[in-house]
């Protein structure tokens, strides 16, 4: 026995049910993406807050040397990758020992050391 093909109305109702299922699945996926992004943003903020404060003073080492070549203020844009954070007294001592003050940030002026 053959069955009559579904009516146009039955096909439209079926299409609606499929669409609703797909829309729910899509919303579920988007909600997961939003939750993941919120988690990443929360972790990023937590890492930023846990980051130690930037050093006030930097001493830059020379290429292939263990000798210091410049003293910088901590946020100096000219400080090289071979710079390390130091305490105020270490920066003063380095300047007193003849390490050059960075001509851009002038740590000697900020430290009150004048020639």
What is the strand and helix layout of this fold?
Blueprint: H1 8-50, E1 57-61, E2 68-73, E3 83-86, H2 88-96, E4 100-101, H3 107-111
Parallel strand pairs: 2-4
Antiparallel strand pairs: 1-2, 1-3
Pfam families: DUF6233
InterPro entries: DUF6233
Count of individual domains: 2
Q: Give, in spatial order, the strands making up the sheet with the most strands.
A: 3-1-2-4
Tell me the Rg in angstroms: 32 Å
Principal-axes shape call: rod-shaped
- Please bin the fraction of helical residues: 40-55%
Biggest sheet overview: 4 strands, mixed
Poorly predicted runs are none
How far apart the termini lie comes to 109 Å
- Can you count the helices? 3
Keywords summarizing the entry:
4-stranded mixed sheet, 2 domains, 115 residues, 50% helix, alpha+beta
Question: Can you describe this structure?
Answer:
It is a single chain. The protein contains 3 helices and 4 strands. With 115 residues, it is α+β, with helices and mostly antiparallel strands. The protein folds into 2 domains: 7-51; 57-111, no CATH class. It has a 4-stranded mixed sheet. The mean pLDDT is 92.
Give the gist of this structure.
It holds the Pfam family DUF6233. The protein has 115 residues and is an alpha+beta fold.
């Amino acid at each position: 026995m053959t069955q009559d093909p579904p009516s146009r109305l039955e096909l439209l109702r079926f299409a609606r049910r499929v669409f609703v299922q797909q829309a729910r699945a899509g919303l579920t996926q988007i909600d997961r993406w939003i939750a993941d992004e919120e988690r990443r943003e929360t972790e990023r903020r937590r890492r930023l807050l846990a980051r130690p404060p930037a050093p006030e003073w930097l001493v830059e080492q020379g290429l292939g040397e263990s000798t210091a070549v410049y003293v910088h203020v901590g946020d100096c844009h000219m400080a090289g990758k071979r710079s390390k954070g130091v305490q105020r007294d270490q920066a003063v001592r380095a300047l007193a020992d003849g390490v050059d003050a960075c001509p851009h940030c002038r740590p000697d002026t900020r430290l009150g050391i004048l020639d």
